[in-house]
Design a protein that fits this description.
heterodimer; A: Rossmann fold; Dimethylsulfoxide Reductase, domain 2; 26 helices; B: 212 residues; alpha+beta; Arc Repressor Mutant, subunit A; Glutaredoxin; 8% strand; disordered C terminus
Chain lengths: 846, 212
């Protein structure tokens, strides 16, 4: 667009670069304008996602602003009309040579053993713009070779050229300024405070953006040379955000992930959990072959035997208990294509609707698929107002946290947070409404309509509420309000959040929602119908019965059970065969006791998984599945954005793609899914799934779809069944108070006992453990000193855990992190109850 | 030798309240810590980080930038001898050599009794009085070798205690700014009216007072 004549570009700034007249955008930096027009100005410190600092002086060029040519840093100067830039003049070239000679004075020439060698901006730009030789003959500076500044990142201070990229990232982007320039002048170095490591959730990004080999990751150091790496793009499946990343592999081994900058999602950043859990892919503990449980434990069997056995188990279930005797739990690990194949197998061949990709800790599918959806960009738009009630994004959806942080700090967005506990987001919130657990609906209702007579709005501070109300009202009137919604705590039912959304939908029918999902491809699995009462393409079973009846062998008779229902039915002896489709309910389902009962009671369990995790160990038959980077297909992030996953390495042993397992099972059940490749499956999805109509493979692979395609919740294509809509239910009352108990809030931390984290040696030891946090007032009533292990009881069970005081926890509330070493917190939670009330007793569990 | 003492935390809070942002108090607080312990301890830096709401790394980054903040223990008296051009021409280097012999240490070191740390410094802006030196940043002009010996004896005997407090004390008089004279406690972006002190300054009674 900017190659148009200046008068045709709105706010265009005509400038001249290397004799060529062109039009820069208003406020654009010279370095950016030049790059956009094919002129690359060398740089080290400048990074398009951070504010310029003009630190390295590499980008200085001869610039004439009307006062005669002068050497100026082009990363610090906005284009002004009539500016003349020369990036190739002898003066510029001499300046670049000088800067490089200066930077190389103290930079060690250890390129042959440096991990950055081959992809090093300093090396490349010295080659392209450097003087060729140095006049410096003195001894170079020497410092201790790498020092560990965190568990994951090493710092080699000799190599550092003080570009301020890592320190700027830590302060500006991540908000964890734990690394800083120390000392002055020739002694300047980047370092941490003694015994205060760079323990940021985003530390790996600093190694990626380091323009020299000063920062390296422990997982990649000395593992490969860049010219041996093959690079494939894909989308991270660690959480629902779906960051775009590059899989760097060599000799069929994944060696690292690097963030890829896509504008609508991750801006090039990754969290450390997503970046370093590639280790799990080539873990020694991966399942390599199908296993059958015999009298002496698991035995390796062939795929032929395994498939025959699985088909026998399923047909026996069909004949003895009918389709309702089969339950399928999980599916968030699957690609969209595999999810579709399994949905077709379950609902179209077996005829069971007891299928759920969620593990009782995600949002209801009517809400995820049925509300007007906002993208991350819409939520984070400059000057917008964000109403947030959901999990702590810093712990569960870290890169979304970075985007929200940027929106608030740099783009003057207003954040209103409604939460029972303080989160990583709270310091950014203009208004923080802290409410009692299980009363988010009361707090949101009070936020929209004021506190009703006889209620207290979930216990929020009335003064804060008044300010927040005014902000929401104003934002809703001007159309700048978006809502971010997710599960605040797994110790309570999703009904409260659903009711809060209902209040908002009734009050502001135009407002859009970003629905937060914690696992990789839950959204894709829901899109593909892996939930009870749902069929692929975001349609309800009842409304799409005829549509799918015409295409599939069969369709379930009526809506089935969700995960809690399936596990309860299994515990009651009503499920004959349980399929764990990449699910570990013992670890992930909020009610561990129910999951344990179910796994113990159900006669037959088939598990399709990458690891022999706790729940899979209870299975009778284990099918080894291929995982991320080993399968091709697509995935859908929490916005509903479909992006392409690529296969790069070979699965271990004989592990197979999930959709192939589904297809072969169907064949052995005397049916046929009619699906022969991932592309084939997408073709059928595009044809059949109403919401995905028109999103062809060609469209997905088109260059303009590099950032993925957002499937919106709009009107379906003509002749197809209507997509699900969120229908607000009748308002709920607050949960009954219990003066003798504390109400539990259970949350996750980034690093926990999750399978992928534990299978990655770099991350396995980072789980911080857990303590029960209560208000000092409540603690005082116990009459015991702080820091003791006490017994915590609920109606469901009891655990022993250290109890500490935390003034930020409301009176009557108790907060804890789940899935951490030391305490099985999910023993306390009863999936049938809407809130979890606990009591603390002095003494340990026997 | 650790975190700020209870009394100094009170002083620190008073200092923090003078600034629109707590972090602006970083350097005064580092002086306070140095006054307390003679140098800036790691524990004090971590404590200051807590008080102003930043990370210890940021405190160390600022602290280590400035030569006058010592990150390691120094003597009760920090003797800085200038060898820059004017002093050098008037015998600064010889004075330094003499001082090294007299104290029995090389520049950059501390005497065993922990009383003196000797440093060679660049210009201390007393060129007209060369050769000059500073003891805990208090000036001594046109210093002869005999003057230096007398100075060391006086310091050892405590005869200069009134004039030269131990290293770290910038001034014995503690600055105190009444709350109505402060620049305003709100961050700049929240300030909507002119600062209080400006109003006082421009009020007629005050202008009158100034005229008298």
């Amino acid at each position: 667009m900017s190659d148009l004549p200046p008068e045709q570009v709105p706010d265009g700034v005509p400038i001249t670069i290397n004799g060529k007249e062109l039009v820069a955008e208003k406020g654009e930096l010279i370095i950016d304008a030049a790059e956009r027009h094919g002129v690359y100005i060398p740089r080290f410190c400048y990074h398009p996602r951070m504010r310029p600092v003009g630190m390295c002086r590499m980008c200085i060029c001869e610039v004439d602003t009307g006062r005669g040519p002068a050497l100026l840093p082009t990363c610090m100067l906005e284009c002004t009309p009539g500016m003349v830039v020369n990036t190739e003049s002898p003066v510029t070239a001499k300046a670049q040579e000088g800067v490089l000679e200066f930077l190389l004075i103290n930079h060690p020439l250890d390129c042959p053993v440096c991990d950055k060698g081959g992809e090093c901006p300093l090396q490349d730009q010295t080659f392209a713009y450097g003087p060729g030789e140095s006049r410096y003959i003195e001894e170079k500076r020497h410092k201790e070779k790498p020092i560990a500044i965190s568990d994951l990142v090493l710092l080699d201070r000799e190599r550092c050229i003080l570009c301020d990229r890592c320190t700027r990232f830590a302060k500006e982007v991540a908000g964890d300024p734990l690394i800083h320039f120390m000392h002055r002048g020739n002694n300047t170095e980047v370092n941490v405070f003694p015994d205060e490591p760079f323990a940021s959730y985003f530390s790996g990004n600093t190694a990626q953006i380091c323009p020299v080999g000063a920062l390296t990751t422990t997982t990649y150091r000395f593992r490969a040379r860049p010219w041996d790496l093959e690079v494939t793009e894909s989308t991270c499946q660690t959480c629902g955000v779906g960051c775009r990343l590059a899989i760097d592999s060599s000799r069929d081994q994944v060696l690292r992930y690097e963030g890829v900058d896509i504008d609508p999602v991750n801006w090039g950043w990754l969290c450390d959990k997503g970046r370093f859990n590639f280790q799990a892919i080539q873990s020694e503990d991966r399942l390599r072959n199908p296993l059958l449980k015999g009298p002496n434990g698991f035995e390796v069997i062939t795929w032929g035997q395994a498939m025959r056995r699985a088909a026998d188990m399923l047909s026996e279930a069909l004949s003895s208990t009918g389709p309702d005797g089969i339950g399928i739990v999980g599916g968030a690990r699957l690609t969209n294509e595999s999810a579709y194949a399994w949905a077709k197998l379950a609902k179209g061949v077996l005829g069971t609707d007891n299928v759920d990709a969620r593990l009782g800790d995600e949002l209801p599918h009517e809400l995820v698929l049925g509300v007007p959806k906002a993208t991350i960009d819409e939520v984070c738009r400059p000057g917008g107002t964000i109403l947030y009630f959901g999990p702590d994004p810093k712990e569960e959806l870290p890169v979304l946290y970075l985007r929200l942080r940027h929106a608030v700090i740099q783009d003057s967005a207003t954040l209103i947070e409604v939460s029972p506990v303080r989160t990583g987001l709270t310091p950014l919130a203009r208004h923080f409404l802290q409410h009692r657990p299980g009363e988010v609906h009361e707090a949101v209702r009070a936020l929209i309509h004021g506190i009703p007579q006889g209620r207290d709005g979930g216990g929020v501070d009335p003064a804060q509420l008044g300010l927040a109300r005014a902000a929401v009202e104003q934002a809703a009137a001007s159309g700048s309000l978006t809502v971010v919604v997710g599960r605040q705590s797994i110790a309570e039912s999703s009904d409260w959040v659903t009711d809060a959304v209902a209040t908002l939908v009734r009050a502001f029918p135009e407002v859009k929602f970003l629905t937060l999902l914690r696992r990789g491809n839950v959204h894709g699995a829901l899109d593909m119908g892996l939930a009870p009462g749902l069929l692929p393409g975001r349609v309800a079973l009842d409304q799409a019965r005829d549509w799918y009846g015409a295409a599939w062998p069969t369709v379930p008779a009526g809506p089935g059970l969700d995960t809690a229902g399936i596990l309860q039915a299994a515990a009651d002896g009503k499920i004959n065969t349980l399929v764990l489709l990449g699910a570990d309910p013992l670890t992930d389902f909020p009610d561990r006791q129910l999951a344990a009962q179910a796994l113990q009671k159900v006669p037959q369990i088939i598990a399709v998984d990458l690891f022999l995790n706790q729940s899979v160990q209870a299975a009778d038959l284990v099918l080894a599945a291929a995982g991320f980077s080993e399968v091709e297909g697509t995935a859908t992030n929490l916005e509903g954005r479909v992006s392409v996953l690529n296969q790069k390495v070979t699965p271990p042993g004989t592990a197979r793609s999930d959709w192939i397992i589904a297809a072969e099972l169907a064949r052995r059940l005397d049916s046929d899914l009619g699906l022969e490749s991932a592309d084939d499956i997408w073709g059928e999805i595009e044809q059949l799934a109403p919401s995905h109509h028109g999103v062809t493979l060609d469209a997905l692979f088109a260059p303009e779809a590099a950032d993925g395609i957002v499937i919106s919740t709009g009107e379906p294509a003509p002749g197809r069944p209507p997509t699900v809509r969120f229908e607000p239910g009748s308002p709920l009352d607050p949960p009954a108070p219990d003066a003798y108990s504390l109400r539990l809030v259970a949350n996750r931390k980034l690093y926990d006992l999750g399978t992928f984290t534990q299978a990655s040696p770099a991350l396995a030891n980072l789980a911080p453990g857990t303590k029960l946090r209560v208000n000092p007032y409540d603690f005082e009533r116990l009459g015991v000193p702080e820091g003791r292990v006490l017994k915590v009881k609920s109606v469901r069970g009891a655990i022993s855990v250290e109890v500490v005081t935390d003034p930020d926890v409301l009176r009557g509330t108790a907060a804890i992190h789940v899935n951490q070493p030391g305490a099985l917190v999910t023993d306390l939670i009863d999936a049938r109850l809407r809130v979890t009330d606990i009591r603390i007793e002095v003494g340990e569990v026997a | 030798m650790s975190r700020l003492s209870t009394e100094n935390v009170e002083v620190a809070r008073e200092i923090i309240a003078r600034y629109p942002r707590p972090k602006s108090a970083l350097i005064p607080l580092l002086h306070l810590a140095q006054e307390q312990d003679g140098y800036v301890t790691s524990e004090a830096m971590a404590h200051i980080a807590e008080l102003v709401g930043c990370t210890p790394a940021e405190v160390l980054g600022t602290c280590s930038f400035y030569e006058m903040f010592k990150l390691h223990p120094v003597g009760r008296y920090l003797v800085n001898i200038c060898t820059n051009i004017s002093c050098m021409l008037c015998g600064g280097e010889e004075l330094l050599e003499h001082a090294e012999k007299r104290l029995g240490i090389k520049a950059g070191n501390t005497t065993e009794d922990g009383l003196f740390t000797l440093e060679e410094v660049e210009c201390i802006a007393a060129c007209t009085e060369a050769p000059s030196l500073q003891v805990n940043y208090r000036y001594f002009h046109k210093v002869t070798h005999d003057d230096f010996d007398r100075l060391v004896d006086d310091l050892r005997a405590g005869r200069l205690d009134d004039e030269i407090p131990p290293h770290g004390t910038l001034a014995r008089v503690r600055q105190s700014i009444p709350s109505d004279r402060r620049a305003g406690i709100a961050p700049p972006e929240q300030v909507t009216s002119e600062p209080v002190w400006l109003r006082n300054f421009e009020s007629p009674s005050r202008a009158q007072g100034a005229a008298e």
